[in-house]
Amino acid sequence: MRAAENLGRFTVAHLSVHAPSRSFDGHRFHIKVDRQLASAAEGRGQFVEHGIPRKGFAFGGQQLADRVFLVARIRWTWHLQRPRFRAAAVSASASELADHQSGARLSTLLSPNEAWDIDLVVSYGRPYWPNPGGSLRDNARLEPLSNDAGLWLTATSYHRSQTNYPTPELLCPRLPRPGEEPNRITGGGPGPDGVGGMYWFVETITARELTEATIASRADAES
User: Fold this and answer.
1) How many other CB atoms are there within 10 angstroms of residue 85's CB atom?
2) Rounded to whole angstroms, how far apart are CA atoms 124 and 151?
3) CB 155 within 8 A of CB 168
4) Count of alpha carbons within 13 Å of 164, Cβ hemisphere only?
5) How far lies 55's CA from each of 24, 31, 138, 182, 187, in Å?
6) Residue 183: is it exposed, middle or buried by C-beta count within 10 angstroms (0-12/13-18/19+)?
7) Using CA atoms in the order 212, 214, 216, 219, what is the torsion angle rounded to 10 degrees?
8) Enclosing H/E stretch for 143
9) Which of 78, 28, 88 is nearest to 208 (CA)?
10) What number is the average pLDDT over the span 77-92?
11) In the predicted model, is pLDDT for residue 127 greater than 60?
12) Whole-angstrom Cα distance, residue 190 to residue 199?
């Protein structure tokens, strides 16, 4: 069972969820990067920077109940809706959904310092919804997925205050300063619980000058 994280229209990393097998006891959650696609994205001028080992980065997920784990949180910050960053935020049209897929879009404005989250939960035996009544009332569910190993993947949409539910500090690049060019960016990494918790993906706005400085610094280090 896999969920992809995209740079533009090209998938460079994926989140995998595996049940127990002959290779390992217990489930396995991990992130891997397709290095060929990452190199191709860099060749098109996109910014790609990661420290994920070649065999992937494994983590435990945040346990919510017996054999139920919050695996990942996908977050979009309110900066993506701010008028001053609109040109940078609107970088592509929405993806087309196939007959076997379901999706959701944000059609309301976020309040300052609010975020839109999609929480991905993996459970054994049957789908699990962290807030069953509220998610039904708010139409906040995406259709669940299952595999032959008996694992279920559910996705629930939330609006959250970043004051009460802060984004991990390392996934909060600074905003553009006066005179700098805004740039849309997606980052990923573990939260405060490290490998024992969930994995975060955060899409927000930063300065192009910051990403270019990172690329230049990496080139200097490799020379």
Assistant:
1) 19
2) 5
3) no
4) 5
5) 15, 9, 39, 34, 19
6) buried
7) -140
8) strand 141-146
9) 88
10) 88
11) yes
12) 5
Structure token pair of residue 99: 């007959």
Q: How many other C-beta atoms can be found within 10 angstroms of the C-beta atom of residue 209?
A: 14
Give the CA count within 13 Å in the CB-facing half-sphere of 197. Answer: 10
- What average pLDDT does the chain have? 84
Element (H, E) at 42: helix 35-43
pLDDT digit string (tens) for 166-202? 999 999 999 999 999 999 998 899 999 988 899 999 9
Report strand pairing: 68-77 vs 199-207: parallel
Exposed, middle or buried, 79 (CB in 10 Å: 0-12/13-18/19+)?
Answer: buried
**Mean pLDDT (whole number) for 139-157:** 90
Each residue's pLDDT tens digit, 95-123? 677 776 666 677 788 999 999 999 999 99
Distance CA(217)–CA(175), nearest Å, equals: 20
